[in-house]
Specification:
10 helices, mainly alpha, 231 residues, binds iron/sulfur cluster, binds cobalamin
Length: 231
């Protein structure tokens, strides 16, 4: 976009951000008229729904101010009702400590035991509140390869993913944001997901194969998962 503007007006000062710096992206997007902050706390656009990232150009250009968008959530509570961990504790307020996105991606250390059974098979983030939003019925899939499923992860089997050693993890997820969480959290999260799955001998065998993993974090989550099948 900066290049396109440059083509029109010549060189100008700018810096681009996408979830990359302490920028109040949602407040800026709302004020810029891109949408309103929905009850799930993300930006919703009347035509595009809520399933998109926000990006900004800070610039020295003297641009006219846009009209802010107003709230169109109305009486809807779909996102609040669907949240598996009741992380949307009040409209527009997410308790990040309960959000599966935080628990699987950002949290360093053990996942609180009370939340583990509620996480289902989500091993990297969660989109349930966005998925539930009725405004997404107007959304269309993004064009461009960057948004297509990669590495066959849209049809992956958790036991196969659990068998990846660190080298395979790093190699198979090259270029993917999942790589950022590291192999230890990867195993921690999959152990929880396997503990939430219906009983199968394949799952028990997969969990047993990691019982003696060098990481105490992984071992503890594996033991929690195995204990789920003996209750
Ligand atoms: C921390 C963070 C998280 C945390 C906490 C989220 C939360 N809801 O609090 C965790 C890890 C849980 C998380 C999860 C997710 N996140 Co996140 N996250 C961020 C991040 C990095 C910072 C947000 C933040 O806390 N800023 C600091 C606080 C002080 O600012 P703020 O929240 O914007 O609040 C200010 C204003 O917005 C305003 N304000 C806030 N709420 C309200 C409400 C009203 C009524 C009003 C008037 C004003 C107002 O006042 C505040 C103080 O000035 C942003 C990127 C960014 N730089 O903004 C992405 C971002 C919000 N995340 C994003 C996404 C996509 C997700 C996930 C869907 C990822 C996933 N699939 O797992 C989930 C969704 C969970 C959810 N329901 O929010 C997108 C949202 C895109 C969109 N359509 O809006 C962002 C914008 C990243 C991006 N560039 O695309 N995220
Ligand atoms: S991302 Fe998932 S866990 Fe987090 S608030 Fe939305 S539905 Fe709840
Ligand atoms: S699901 Fe309903 S309440 Fe939640 S953001 Fe969308 S319109 Fe608003």
């Amino acid at each position: 976009m900066a290049k396109r503007i440059e083509d029109e007006v010549g060189p100008f000062g700018y810096r681009a951000f996408v979830d990359s710096a302490p920028v109040l992206e949602r407040a800026l997007a709302e004020k810029a008229g891109l949408g309103w902050i929905g009850k799930h706390s993300n930006i919703v656009n009347r035509k595009a729904g809520s399933w998109f990232f926000l990006g900004e150009l800070y610039t020295t250009l003297p641009l006219p101010a846009d009209q802010a968008e107003s709230d169109h959530c109305g009486r809807c509570t779909e996102c609040i009702d669907i949240c598996p961990t009741q992380a949307i504790v009040a409209p527009y307020t997410v308790d990040a400590r309960r959000c599966i996105s935080y628990l699987t991606i950002e949290l360093d250390g053990p996942i609180p035991e009370s939340l583990r059974p509620l996480m289902g098979n989500r091993i990297f983030g969660c989109d349930d509140c966005l998925m539930a939003c009725p405004w997404n019925r107007f959304a269309t899939p993004a064009a461009g390869d960057e948004f297509l499923p990669r590495h066959g992860l849209d049809s992956a089997n958790l036991c196969d993913l659990f068998a990846w050693d660190e080298e395979t993890f790093l190699h198979r997820l090259e270029g993917s944001p999942i790589r950022r969480m590291g192999h230890e959290r990867w195993l921690r999260n999959i152990a929880v997901a396997l503990g939430n799955a219906p009983y199968s001998t394949t799952i028990i065998a997969a969990l047993n194969s990691r019982r003696l993993h060098p990481s105490e974090l992984v071992r503890e989550h594996v033991n929690w998962a195995l204990a789920r099948f003996t209750q």
